[in-house]
Amino acid sequence: MLSIKETLQNIQSGVVVFLVALPLCLGIAIAQDAPPIAGIISGIIGGSVVMLFSGSKYSISGPAAGLTAIVLTAVNDLGSFEALLTAMIVAGAIQVVLGIIKAGIVGYYFPSSVIKGMLSAIGIILIIKQIPHLVGYDLDPEGDMAFWQMDGRNSFSELLNMLNFFTPGPAIVSGISIIVMIFWSPKFIHPDGKLSFIPNALVIVLLGIILNSIFEYFFPNLFIQQDHLVALPTINSTSDLYNSLRFPDLSGFSNSKTYVVGFTIAIVASLESLLSLDASDKLKKVLKPSSPNRELIAQGLGNLACSAVGGIPVTSVIVRSSANIAAGASNKLSGYVHGFLLLVSVLVFPDVLTRIPNASLAVILLFTGYKLTKLSLIKSMFSLGINQYLPFLTTIIVMLLTDMLKGIVCGLIVAIYFILRDLMRIPIKVSNTVIEGKTHTLITFPETVSFINKGVLLKMLDTIPANSYLILDGKNIKSIDYDVLETIHLFMDAAAEKNIEIDAINIQIIDKLVSSH
To answer: Which of 453, 511, 444, 451 is nearest to 477 (CA)?
Structure first.
């Protein structure tokens, strides 16, 4: 049972996540060439259906920028948004099955260096992407996280291009908001004081609305026009809401491409969710990791729900999850609050939200990015040595220049290289001595003998002279690869012709292998 203080804290966190999620839900939908309401629908389902079935208290789900290219291609290949919804039924069903067969364990095999690199990269990307919005350059929507943007420019060239579109009103709002954001923090406000229960994100939003109202009446030249304010779908009645919904085209089940798209969405969305879940647990420093299999089932049910009412694919999203954790969430209540506010925002007070400057929300996202990209994390990774910081840096650089999945894959490849290198360094030792004119060779195996050791072992065995004595000492072995056993077996077959006497110590499995040939 939550105390009143904890309840208020989680409601506060839910408000912060709502303010972070709102522009991202709309922006990602626009980036995916989907109806804007589809992004809101997915955010609502992420804060209700997925939250209900997920085992995580802190992970927040919603539309994901990482699926943008897949969704755009899918709509083009399938011919319509409704056909995409049909493919999402396939995707959701596959995710549920993956959870049931416990495939979520895959999430445990991603090195910490890659996960931390992903977090830092997302933080850096968020910061870079928000800077243009701070000065009123809103050509690209929130949620467009790719290096190459919708307007044909890239993340870095946009930082120069934005100077051609500098707008004083948003710049003033963002400048004042940054100052308020810095001082509306535990450093300057007592954690148990009354002001501490007012989220700084909410203060920033209200400040933006008030400043723009002042501009309208007293400084018309600074007034922020509608194209620099939040744009929400207009829903004035229940019939408007129903008419805005899209439903799957069930005839798509006869199209083989539907299953290819569904499988692709399921795999990519599952991978992103598992990585975000792991990253959320690391941010919160939970003692018991959240169940990845339960998360897959929750995400699958969420995508099934999205497909039924016209949403876009959902995953666990680290930007929203990190904002939730940073705001002090301790329970699922914050996730439910965020989903409820998304629903209410469209139905009850859309007019208020459409007065919020994009610059205000950009400040909130800017600070969210900063919290993900701490210098202390970067310093600590460098202090751990090249086998940790090189996968970390690779993930960051590739994500900055391409997208999240490519960054993670490249970081993982570098991490695997160091893992294989370390395995190769586990020595198989050899020593020789001559006793009464006969060469005696001792080969000593380590605890783990993998296929990587096969080449080294072959070279050692090739040097064994004829008419000699060989001891294979496996008393330390706890695990030995079949390829190595086969190599030993083949050598033993050939050894008789060279009159090499072999004594295998504690490698009993060789006897079984020999008898099977």
So the answer is: 444
